[in-house]
Amino acid sequence: MPDDLKTPPGKGRPVGPGGIPDRLEGAASASRPASPAPSAPTASSLHAASLAPASPLPPAPPLPAALESPGGPDWRRPLLVALLVLMVGAALGAAAFAAEQRAFVWRPAVEARASGGWTVTGSAGLRPSSPALAADHLVWSQGARTCVLDLESGDTHVVGAATPGSSVWPSAAGDRYVAWIEVPRGSGAGSLWVYDLDGGRRQRFAVGRAAASPAVCDDLVAWYGRSPDGTPRVEAIDMRSGRCAVLVEDPGIEEPVLGADGGVAWVTRSERGPAVVVRDLAAQTQTTVALAASGTTVDELRLAGHTLLWSIASGSDTRVVTFDLDTRATSVVARGLITAAATDGREVIWAEGGSPSGEGVVRGRSLAGGAEYEVGVAVAPPTSLAVGSGWVAWTFDDGGTTYLETSPLRR
Length: 411
What we know:
about 400 residues; five-stranded antiparallel β-sheet
C-alpha cells in the first residue's frame, strides 16, 4: 500500500469521538428555518419462518431540532447577513475547487479498450483500487486521490487529493453523489467529502476520527462511526436537507453496508458463527440471517435492492451466496477459486482464478435466472469488482503494475 494511502488496519476501526457532523461548506444557512425531516427510507418488511423472528426495536434517535429564525422586528438584518455570508462562502468554495482542478498536473493514465470500455494504468505508489460504478461514471481511489471517469466520453477528473500521510477510506458512489473520508495524520477529527456528479460541486463535513466505510444511497450519504462512549453506529446526512441522523447503533456492528432502498446490513459474530443482520429502517425491525459455521471467513458483503450477497471461504473453496429478502430463497451462484464478487441487485458478477495460463475470468449471472455468461478475461485474477449502470469494472496486478479495466455488460 502506498505511503500516502494508509487505511486503518484490520476490521477493528480506531475508537474516537463519533458525533453527528457539522456542515462546513455548502450547507444551508443556520438562521433559515431547517427543512422538514425527510421521510424514512423505504425497505421491505423481512418475514421469514426460517429466520430469527423480527423483533421491534426502539426508534432511531430523532434528527436534530430545527433551528428557529430570530424573532422580533430586527430579524431581517441578521437573515440578510447570513445569506450574504452563505453566498460568499459558496462562491469562495467553488472558486477554490476550480483553482484546485486547474492546479492538478497529475492525471490518471486512461486508454480506450479495443473491445469497448477503458483501462486505467497505475504507476509507482499510485495503484488504482476500490472501483465503484454509478450513473455512467467510474469512481476509484489512486493513492490519496479520488478520481472520476465519464464512461461515455472518457473525460477524467481528480475530485479529491488528501494530504500525504492521511488515512483515506475509499470512495462510494451513487446515482448523483461520490463520497470518501479523510482523516489527517495527528488530527482528532476526520472529513467526509461529497462530490456532486450533476453539479460538479464538492462539499465537506466534519466527522469523528473513527469515521470509516462511506456508503451512498440516493440522497443519503452514510458512514460507520462511533458514539461518544465508543458504541459502533451508522450515521448519515441527507444531502437535500442537510439534516443528520444516527440510522442504527449496535455494539455488534461490523462492516456495515447501505442498501439501495435504505436498509442497513452488517456482519455480527458469535460462538455459533457469523451472521448478517438486516435492519428495516421504515419498520424499525431487524432480521438475522445465519451464514455458516464458526471457523469460516465471510467476505464481500453487499446489499443491493432486496438481495444480500456474500462469499464464504473455507480453505481454497469459496462460495458466492445470494439471499432474496422477499422470497427468503438462498442460492449458491458460484463456487471454486473465487477472487471477488459483486451485485447490483439484478446481476451477480464474480471473478475466477486458477486457470493453467494464470489468467482470470470475469463471469456473471442474472438474478432473474438463466445460464452464466462471460464478461471478460484479465491477464491475472481480479482482486476487486464493481457492477452498476450496465458496466463492470475490475482490478488486477501484472508485473508489479495494477490495472483497472471496465467493460459494458453484455449478456
